[in-house]
Design a protein that fits this description.
2 copies of one chain form a homodimer. Chain A starts with 8 loop residues before the first helix and ends in a 16-residue tail after the last strand. Chain A is α/β, with parallel strands linked by helices. Chain A binds a DNA duplex through helix 2 and helix 4.
Chain lengths: 338, 338
DNA sequence: ACCGAGTATGGTAACGGTTACATAGTAGCA
DNA sequence: TGCTACTATGTAACCGTTACCATACTCGGT
């Protein structure tokens, strides 16, 4: 209840007329303490407004009860659900979270790793494309357990929760073929254009069409120019697949502004199934890859694996195509907007 | 470079043939160290893969270099931009962030406060409606500096970055009146229905219309039922003001699905200007309250105020109405937009 | 030759907890 | 009665850094 200068365990011990060891036992809840003593101590704690020093505890026990979560950018709507689930799971298990926005910036990545190392972080969950590749050497000497989220499966060194991107793409491809599309554009950043990127590969295999890759620098920005570019190359009907929902929603907006019918002339499909995707007009067809699974399974792996770095486990979540209104049968006549 | 058992400052000192004090000087960068010695020590640090223990540093120096950010739910699209800006500003000033999702759960709020206290957090930024009211007593005895974000201005005890909700509402009201609306619904949660909630008040004053409050339990959920409810009470033309963009986008979706014209018959206005609001169809008229300002100014206040709890400062950000396509002149005949 | 200021380094007591070990009382039981 | 097991509490070493103090060397000025 008192103002807070620094109250230590010794102050509490004096006030209650016991030793620090006894106070410590009361706090931690193990070891023998009589009911009477416990009462006294608890009263003193309350009275003095004592709160144990995390730093001292952590130093003495050599445990941090903190785990780090590295993502690229919380503003990308893919992440909030992931972060939320990781935080929830972590807290249930007695850990708290340090959130790191790496922004794909290499200096920042390194700074964060140093920082987390110095915090003696028990674990490190990473959901940032390319991070594991860029920082592999550095990650090897990280003290805590490392778990990769949403990276490609089959990593030999780190435990991984992955999605089957190929399969997700394939579902999109099949769907587009089924509703009659013959031309497909795939909208993504430079990374997704890399050789054999499985999601794009899946779209191509599933549809039997050589989907054309369109590069955008960042999500949501120059989509206006991009819409123009697409329309110069090709007239509807065609389909556009966005690497994520924001890209898809944004390009959909641009195309509708130009008077095209979605669906009917153009189909648009996204990826991630963010909350808003079902609220836009038309509601977006997309692929749900269960962000919240990542959190739960990631923490599961972290605990399963424990301290033994040689143990590597893998889980895979299955993506699911959610068909809504932004993709559909093509209409025959070339009729535009009324 | 070595595997990580625990390398301490002593190991480095031995390896470099100096004392721990010297190593400490090299790390912190102040005090006298010769160039030759510095070199030696830095090499040893690298060689051994040494990383100073945050816990030990923090214990010894009695500083945490950590600040806590309490929000209600990162999944609410209002928050990512705020979190991102706070994190950015915090890191620039040498602090790192512990993110706390209180979920409006009182037990969780208390648990977080205890936790942050025990971490000897230097500061605490809170952007969670009602938190300061519920936990005021507890907050008073918090050790670090407390800054309230997006609370009503004029708090007597804590520094505050506020928005002028009344003015934001008023802008919405005036706009709706100007384009000819006579009926307005305000969609919000129980909290916003409270007596004299300034934003709602502003809408009423600005429009000169007694806007009707509609309660929804949480954003985005039972909006379908709500759309029905509104339509039973009233036929278009009317306007719907959402307490946030997600509510607005969602109700807009429902109303369009029922064949109404937006704009023309119905206008929909949101609040927050989240990134997606300009990408939906029609693009959403909304109020920008500069989430990223909150982060910057919040950290500014935190540093300005320093350790002296008696100092209380205030900043106010001015909201700005962004007129897009979801609100517009009413059409006389039932004909839609050209 | 001597002095003081500046430079370079080492020794060591904290910081605030936890925990192994020691001590001692009490109760059950042969 | 004496032995064992359990309960209850205290003592003190230790976790890894930092910062205060002491020591010692260098050098320019008188």
């Amino acid at each position: 209840m008192a103002r807070n200068t620094n109250i230590t365990i010794r102050d509490v011990a004096n006030h209650a007329g016991v030793s620090t060891a006894t106070v410590s036992r009361v706090i931690s809840g193990d070891g023998y303490v009589s009911d009477a003593t416990r009462d006294k101590v608890e009263k003193s704690i309350k009275k003095l407004g004592y709160s144990p020093s995390y730093a001292a505890q952590s130093l003495r026990t050599q445990k941090s009860t903190v785990i780090g979560l590295i993502i690229t950018d919380i503003k990308n709507p893919f992440y909030p659900e992931l972060v939320s689930s990781v935080e929830e799971e972590a807290r249930n298990r007695g850990y708290s979270l340090i959130l790191c926005n790496s922004q794909e910036d290499i200096d920042r990545e390194i700074a964060y790793l140093d920082y987390l190392d110095s915090h003696r972080t028990d674990g490190l969950l990473i959901c940032a494309p390319g991070f594991a590749t860029r920082q592999r050497k550095r990650l090897r000497q990280f003290r805590g357990t490392v778990v990769l989220l949403n990276e490609n499966a089959g990593d030999a060194e780190f435990s991984t929760v992955s999605t089957n991107n190929y399969q997700g793409g394939k579902q999109i491809g099949s769907h587009l073929k089924l509703i009659g599309h013959r031309k497909i554009f795939y909208l993504g950043t430079r990374r997704e254009s890399e050789d054999g990127y499985p999601r794009l590969q899946g779209v191509r295999t599933g549809s039997g069409i050589d989907a054309k890759f369109i590069e955008t620098d960042d999500f949501g920005d120059d989509l206006e120019g991009l819409a123009e570019a697409i329309l110069q190359v090709s007239k509807p009907p065609f389909a556009v697949v966005g690497h994520n929902d924001v890209m898809a929603i944004s390009i959909m907006h641009e195309l509708m502004n130009r008077g095209f019918k979605i669906p009917g002339e153009i189909s648009v499909i996204g990826y991630d199934d963010i909350e808003l995707s079902k609220m836009v007009n038309p509601a977006l067809t997309t692929v749900n890859q269960r962000q919240s699974q990542f959190g739960k399974w990631g923490m599961d792996l972290f605990e399963d694996v424990g301290n033994d770095k040689r143990v590597v486990k893998t889980r895979e979540v299955t993506p699911e195509l959610i068909i809504r209104d932004s993709s559909g049968e093509l209409v025959k006549s070339g009729k535009g907007k009324p």
